[in-house]
Structure formats: structure tokens, C-alpha cells
Amino acid sequence: MKAEILSIGTELLLGDILNTNAKFLAQELAGAGVEVYHQSVVGDNPGRLREQLERSFARSQLVITTGGLGPTYDDLSKETAAAFFGRKLVEDKEILCWLEERFRAIGCPMTDNNRKQALIPEGAQALANPNGTAPGIWMEDGGRILVLLPGPPREMEPMFQNEVLPRLQQATGKVICSSTIHLFGIGESAVEDRLRPMMVGYQNPTVAPYAKQGEVQLRITAMAESREAARQMIAPVRQEICDSFGQLVYGVDVGSLQNALVQTLLSYGRKVATAESCTGGMVSQRITQIPGSSGVFDCGVCTYANRIKHQLVGVSGEDLERYGAVSEPVALQMARGVRALSGADIGISTTGIAGPDGGSPEKPVGLVYVGVSSEGYEEVLRLNLQGRGTDARDDIRYRASSHALHLALKAARRLGPKEN
Amino acid sequence: MKAEILSIGTELLLGDILNTNAKFLAQELAGAGVEVYHQSVVGDNPGRLREQLERSFARSQLVITTGGLGPTYDDLSKETAAAFFGRKLVEDKEILCWLEERFRAIGCPMTDNNRKQALIPEGAQALANPNGTAPGIWMEDGGRILVLLPGPPREMEPMFQNEVLPRLQQATGKVICSSTIHLFGIGESAVEDRLRPMMVGYQNPTVAPYAKQGEVQLRITAMAESREAARQMIAPVRQEICDSFGQLVYGVDVGSLQNALVQTLLSYGRKVATAESCTGGMVSQRITQIPGSSGVFDCGVCTYANRIKHQLVGVSGEDLERYGAVSEPVALQMARGVRALSGADIGISTTGIAGPDGGSPEKPVGLVYVGVSSEGYEEVLRLNLQGRGTDARDDIRYRASSHALHLALKAARRLGPKEN
Questions:
Q1: Are residues A104 and A238 in the same domain?
Q2: Average pLDDT of chain B?
Q3: Which residue in chain B is spatially nearest to A397 when comparing CA positions?
């Protein structure tokens, strides 16, 4: 099936917001085996929207729009779509009841504007929106499918997954499942080189790499008659890839390094503490991003100045003098020191030169030491990080924080569950 | 002038990357007074690219593309654009020399692939790319203007600003200048309500609000014959807005709260220290994002557990027991404690419930206390933050960290320069 993504909103044309919806839908449709060759953006303008619908349906069977479903006068997607297919708008009693209920619950009077949201094109299906007041629309007409979704991502994303994907699967007669393998310590092109021979002839399941700031994720997607059958197709491919990449795999379907770490620590009854210099709190910030992290994290220190490295986590003043703050002994002492200070099982540390200034021939921008200290296992990594993108400083800090999280995860796995 | 933005890249169609280029160009073109009614995305496919160029030039005078300029076989933007205008590709000697120079400098041999990058359509102008190897292209043909830019944002963005904007200004005979007023502590709709009467009849300069996670920026843009004239048109409007919003303005053209804070502290010779609970290091992370922040920040602590709040920054165990960790006295003692510990002029603190769990009727998710302590000025704010978007926990933490940065800025301005 060929599909197009059509984003509606003047705020997109003005560059006020990023089009995260197009990325989300593109990724989901690719995962569902639906081909997308065009994405478009038009403003809240019925004439241009109608033109775009004509053009899109001339090329594709399925068009998914986002935006323009709200209650205000400039939200015209539904009216335009109904007119495009020559349908009237009719009031959907069920949605009206649900809207009235919802407004009663939040104690607001329902205005006429909002009543407009219960209108749907004749013969269309309304898609439930538990996170907002604008329902989505699914319309079929002579083999063409038009899906209208709301603009706010937190309304659109669950609606796509809960309401649209199952209908698409019904329309195509297939179920899609996917599983993600998380790699750390290898670049995207090296992953592709190693995967290519393995993947020759793999059409279903497919394997696609996604690179994200120092990490690579491999998404395995299978299409089958049932969820169970899709899962059974995924399992051997996942096993083959995990065997091939070995230690480079840090988790399967775990979301992120920080989540893998927090879940591992929670399951083992272990705690981690952080002593950060160049990352300035990014490591602790990423750990505490995870709900429930208070069960594994009590204490972090951001020892930016040498004086504080000595005062808070007991780094030797002599070593600071002799080796400098960006050095292996200092990273190790920071990790040990914060572990002792906090009573955690694992201490991790970062010290480096994030730039843009402060580099020298011996210690260039991007040089970072990352340390870990735990019972029976201590290590310091020396990294030469290349900052990428418009903010190289932030990129270096982010990659350094990923290495620290990865070292902590390694230490946690070596320690295993706490004995009581 | 009417323009279209055309993004080229299969990775966009697959949803592998966000289309930040379209947002950047849309915002820049809006600021330059160029109207954009359509944005499109096509893959690295000459046929569909050519079709899209035909469609776009039927509606618009200017088309700006991003992507497909690299040295590899699937980068076909230049070939397709040349064919579209019936031009040959010719080798540009200047670019070839520059490329050879560049490869010599990085010590890599220049492959034939890379030599391809010196080809430009006959009669076109090459646009310098100091951040990469693919030059951009500016082509005019019978009143139509086609601009080809590289895909990586760190190459594309400076090229647009340094090479494309001046040519656009030459083509339109106008110079564009803008200035941004940063507001904190007021919502976007309240800003619009207050601005509307003031803005009636303002066409040049224009004033546009941009909302970003708890902040509002007002961008004033003027178009004139010269930079000086544009600046003179901006000045009185900026003054009027600053007078109207008073204390809600935290800076003009300062980029971000953390940058405003770091620059103020640097100019005053003052230092700040952080004691974070619910923000988990986000405040220190934002401060240390700014190059040069080591001049104003020595020490941060992330006191996630009660025990550590007592141990590191001396919060009274009795008060922790009586009022709980999320309370005014604890926030104040954390700010005082970290100021004393670090010797900084200003201590700031956060303690709250970021959720999704841990809330209660008395202390719901989103309740955050933010504290500040400095010579002669101490304050604790009680916030009820509503988390928005797909990650409400992260949003609450971000907004709390913004309030802490804003309080620190207020304290710094009250203190003024350090007397030696």
C-alpha cells in the first residue's frame, strides 16, 4: 500500500514548531510495511488543502493528515475532507455524549465551538481521543482511505497506535510486530557492514538500523497473519543478531541506556552515585529521567572546580596538581570518592574537555575520562570524542554521559543481585 | 516573493530523522518576509524530484532544497536540477582547488566521488561550505530561483545565513534584521492578548511570539534599505514591549535563561551553586551547557535521598521529618546549604514531585519548591506545574529547572557586581 503524510498548520509553514508528527508517522508506516514517497505541509487553508488531497490521491491509496481538527474557526480539515468526498457533516450522538461527559468532568461549560467536534463526515468512523477533545476520522471512498488525526503529538500518537494501526492491519490483512536491539560502542556504518551479509534475502522480517548520538538501534519488524506468528519470525533473527554483536548489545526493547541501567539496578537491589565534571549533571539528569529512579539513586555531585573535587569526593590535591583535573587518576578517585560518600554500590565519574575552548595539544577538546568503581571492579576509559552537529560541546557531553551510563551498567551486571 | 521548501532524503520518508531543516528555513524565510505556502519531502529519486520541482515552480518563484548534494551515487539533486533547467554540469575550478586543499589539510586522498562535488550547473553560482565538502548552488532562470543546500544542519544553517540571505536581500532589494525579547513567567496566550492592541497596524516591523516549554520569545523583524535603517525601526518597538512587560522580560537577544544567567554572573564576577532534588542535575546541566560556565559554577549537588540532603547540605533531619522533603523549609535549607558548602554568592535549589507516581492529595504531582539564597535575599517559590507532551515527568523537571535559573538571575541582578 502507498501512503502520503499531509501535515496541516500555519505554525509549520512559519517554522514555529518542528514537524515531529511527520517523523512519527513515517517511522510507524515504514514499520507497518506501508510505502511513503511524499510528505507535504500546507497551512490552514481549505483551497490549498483540497488541491493537495487531489494531488496525493492521484499518487497514493492512503492519505494521513495531522492538524486542523480543533474547535476554532481556522480548523477546517474535517469540512474540507467531507467536501472533497462529496459528503455532508453529520452529528455523531456517541461523540456528543462523550464530549458532554468530558466537559462535565473538568467542570467547564461546553461552547457551541466544541459541539462542532461531534460532527463527522457521513459514513466515516470517529477515532477515540482519550487525550483531548477532537476525535480523529477514518473515511473510505472507492478504495481510497483518508485518515484525519489531531495535531498535538500526545493526542495523535496514541490515536495512531490504538485506532489507526489495527484498521490498517485489517485493511491489509496483516499484523506487524517489531523488536529493537540496542547497541553501544559501535558506529552505524560498522553495524551496516556487519549486517549486510546476514541480511541478504531478508524481506520479512526486515532489519533497519537507527543511529542516535553514539548509539545504534536495530529494529526487526515482521508482518504475519497473527501477533504470535510475527513474534516467532522475529525471535531467531534477534538471536542471530545478538549472538553476532555479543557484548555490544546492551539490551533488547529497553528504550534507552538510562532505562536499562535503572531497571537492572532495581532488579538487583543496587544503587549508583555520580561524580561529574565535564558532563555537569547530565548523567544524574538522565538517570533521574526514569520514573522510579529514586530507588537506585540517592546522590550525585557536580564537582566542576578542582577545589570541590578535593573537598567533596576527596580527590588528592597532589594528583590534581601533577596530572591535571582531566586525567585517569582523578576520574578514578572521583568514582571511588562518590561511592564512599553516598554508600552506593557503584560510583561513576566524568572529567574532560567539552570545549569549544580549553583544549591543548596534549589534552584536546573531546578528551574525556570516564570512571567506575564498584566491589571488585574498577575501570577508567580514555575517550577522544568528536563533537557533531551545531552544538559540539553538548554532543561531547552527551556521548560522555552515555559512556558513563554504559560503564555503570557493566558494573551492575558484574555485581549481580545484592545478597541480603 | 513566494517560496517553497523541498527536503530531499529517503531517511526523512522513513522517519529516521526529524526535518529540522524545514523548520529552520521556514522560520528564516518568514523573518525575511518571504511567503511559504508549501513544504514537501521526496526521497533520493530523480523522477519524483523533477515532478516536485515542476509543481513547485508552477506555484512559486523561489524553491529551496536541502539534501542530496553529497559525493555518493544516490546524491542526485544537482544532476536533476541541472537537467530541469536544461543546463550541463561543468567543473568549477575554484571549488576543485578548494576541495583539493581541504583533503590535503585533513590528510585524506580525494576520491573521484569527491571530485564530483566540484561540478555545478552551467551559469549557476557555488555557495561556500566551510563546514563540509558539498558546496551549495544558486541558480536563476527566467525569474525563477532555485537554491540547493546540503542536508546536514551544521552545514546548511550557516550557508543559508551567510550565502543565501544576502542574495535574497539583493534579489528583493531589502535588508532584514530581527531582535528577540525573552519573557519568563507569562503564557503565550496572555502575551498575545497584551500584544494585540499594541500591534494593530504594525506591518513593518512585525512582532511574532514563539512559545518554548514555559518561556515566550517575541521576535521583532524589520525590513529596510539598510541594516542601520532596519535597526532604527526595531528600537522603539522593542522599547515599547520591554516597558509593557517590565519584570517579565529577562533579556534581549540572550539565547536562553542559562546563557542570560552565565553572562550576568561573568560580568558581575559572581558564582552560583545548585542543590537539586526533583530536577536531578538538570539545573547544573543547563548552566554548564554554556561555554565559559566554569567561571561562574564550581559545585552542584544532586541530593535525591533525604539522608543525602542532611549529610551534604545540612538540611535539618527534624524538618525533613516534620514537613517532608517537598516543602518550603527544605528548599530554603538546601539553597543555603549548598551556598555555604561551595562558597558561591548564590545557592539555588529544587525539591518536588515530578511523577508519574509519588503524588498525594496534599502534595500532587507537579508540586515543586524552588529556592534561592544570597546575601540579603532569600526566596522560595511554590509551583504547581502541569506536565505537557508525551513525557510529562521531563516537562515538569524542565519547567522547574527554568524557574530555578530565573530565580538565580534575579538574585544576581540584586547583588550586582562584586566589589574587590
A1: no
A2: 92
A3: B289
Contact A25 B39 (CB under 8 A): no
Q: Is residue B72 part of a domain?
A: yes
pLDDT at A75: 76
What local confidence, expressed as pLDDT, does residue B139 receive? Answer: 96
* Residue A231 domain flag: yes
Q: Closest partner residue to B20 among A14, A18, A48, by Cβ?
A: A18
Same domain, A184 and A223: yes
- Residue A410 and residue A266 in one domain: yes
Q: How far does the CA of residue B90 sit from the closest CA of chain A (Å)?
A: 31
**Residue B54, domain extent:** 2-172
**With an 8 Å Cβ cutoff, are A293 and B287 in contact?**
no
Residue of B nearest to A343 (CA): B308
Cβ separation of A390 and B157 shorter than 8 Å? yes
Residue of B nearest to A388 (CA): B154
Sheet containing strand A125-127, strands side by side? A125-127, A136-141, A144-149, A62-66, A2-8, A35-42, B35-42, B2-8, B62-66, B144-149, B136-141, B125-127
For the stretch B134-163, pLDDT in tens is: 899 999 999 999 999 999 888 899 899 999
Q: What angle do CA B94, B95, B97 make, to 5 degrees?
A: 65
Same domain, A69 and A203: no
| Nearest chain A CA: its distance from B96 CA (Å) | 25
pLDDT-derived band at B172 (thresholds 50, 70, 90) equals confident
Residues B248, B191 within the same domain: yes
Nearest CA in chain B to A45: B37
Read off the pLDDT of residues B317-332 as tens digits, 9 standing for 90 and up: 999 999 999 999 999 9
Q: Is residue A399 part of a domain?
A: yes
Kindly report the CATH number assigned to the domain that includes residue B331: 3.90.950.20
Identify all chain B residues contacting A355, using CB atoms and an 8 Å cutoff: 291
- Chain B residues in contact with A397 by the CB 8 A cut-off are 288-289
